[in-house]
Predict the 3D structure of the following.
Amino acid sequence: MPEGDTVWRTAMHLDRALTGSVLTRTDFRVPAHATLDLSGQVVEGTVPRGKHLLTRIGADLTLHTHLKMEGAWHLYRPGTPWRRPAHEARVVLETEERVAVGFALGVVEVIGRDDEESVVGHLGPDLLGPDWDEEEALRRLRSDPDREIGEALLDQRCLAGIGNLYKGEALFVAGVNPYTDVSKVPDLRRLVQTARRMLLANRERVRQTTTGVDRRGQENWVYGRAGKPYRRCGTRILMGSQGPAMQERVTFWCPACQPSR
Ligand SMILES: [Zn+2]
């Protein structure tokens, strides 16, 4: 699942590649827009909102996409082969100089510019947004005090941009057990600031690291390291599931560094 920093970087690349250019061909490979043709329209820009991407086209349309689990946008020069199978493409935007292909996107919908709020209006403050509002994010998190913090951090209605990786890593660095109730987290502000710092540090990077170490296998503190001893305390990292039924996400933690309360 892409995190907010991946979406931010994707938006930046799409924005640099397409903004100001005329679309010479479009291909929407989703049933709702199979016959839609936006060629001749100018791309106005692409912005990230949490994990959503908004590509503004022409005077009044917006292409709303979401990477979900496996999605990615690729940029190619015309005539060069794609790095993923063509049948995974959900949308193709072509200009004179670039071909942008959205593969395996979870959402592809063209909406009116005025309707952007209807698809991203539910989101809490965006950790990487220009209008990041820490107080509002804390207020939203605290509004459900009995919820487990590992679940609340993933709720994009509280704050937008944290996925499973940064959830686990920020909780580890803050020494907070993921199953702690929100109301019992000793310093919620510091936890949120830690998560945001990780997103900021990684948004220009291709390979994410939360430890500051680039070497394979050492990029993260606990994420994906179940069964391995944590390097400093020697305790084996645990893995469990968390969240409402059918929507459980996996959680990693060190029982020594992150004791339950
Ligand atoms: Zn430990």
